[in-house]
Amino acid sequence: MILSVNTISSPFRGTQIVFTLGERTDAAPAVRPLSWGSLLAKGVHIVSYLSPILPRVLDLHIDSRSLSLYDITPLELLKQLWRSDWAESRDATPYDVTFEAADEREASDPSSSTNNTHAPSMSISQLAFAPLYVMARAIGSFNFSTLRPAPSFLTPKCPRSAKTDPERAISEEYEPLPEEYYANDGVVPLFSQWHPFPCM
């Protein structure tokens, strides 16, 4: 059973594509201004606002967000375009596929997932499409040490001590990660395609 649209690419343990597209590495679910993610959210807000007068083909199920011109004023739309309560919340797909959200899910309910279940993403003829190729390159070279809080799979090279200076703590070095953290299909890294808990 597919519980959400996130299951299609199966980022069970998160994916760095959200950070590449605009999620802030130090303050998720906040989005960097003028990033692809910010522009996408603004586009969704505008289409949602105008949806009552647009063709039904562009229906984004706006009734679940209450963002149409019947629900909010033009001033409220401008506020949402400045900082989106919907796109920058913890109850949105971009946050759901961060490593922080994956760590929270794994810590809160170990019985809800299954381990060692591989659910590969759909292969689109060896990344024939340019956007997937570009995203695959970005995911393959992502610097995990920039994430705050640090994901649970990062292991510090040397444990922090009380005498560690603040400058060193900010730029903490981590053990190198294996290839499956960088190998990807343009959307999800290989390590994230396995469930974190045992099969039931």
Report on this model:
It is a single chain. The chain is mostly helical and 200 residues long. 30% of the residues lie in helices and 0% in strands. The protein is built from seven helices and no strands. The longest helix is centred in the first third of the chain and has 15 residues, at 36-50. It is elongated, with a radius of gyration of 19 Å. The protein starts with 16 loop residues before the first helix and ends in a 30-residue tail after the last helix. The model is unreliable at 1-8 (pLDDT under 50).
Outline of the structure:
InterPro entries: AB_hydrolase_fold (IPR029058). The chain is an all-alpha fold and 200 residues long.
**Helix proportion:** 25-40%
β-strand number: 0
Tally of DSSP helical segments: 7
Radius of gyration of CA atoms, rounded to a whole number = 19 Å
The secondary-structure element order is HHHHHHH
> What share of the residues does DSSP label as strand, in percent?
under 5%
Report how far the terminal alpha carbons are from each other.
15 Å
What is the average of the pLDDT values?
A: 77
Main sheet summary: none
Low-confidence stretches: 1-8
- Which structural class best describes the helix and strand composition? mainly alpha
Please give the structural blueprint.
Elements: H1 17-21, H2 36-50, H3 74-82, H4 93-96, H5 99-108, H6 130-140, H7 166-170
List keywords for this structure.
mainly alpha, AB_hydrolase_fold, 200 residues
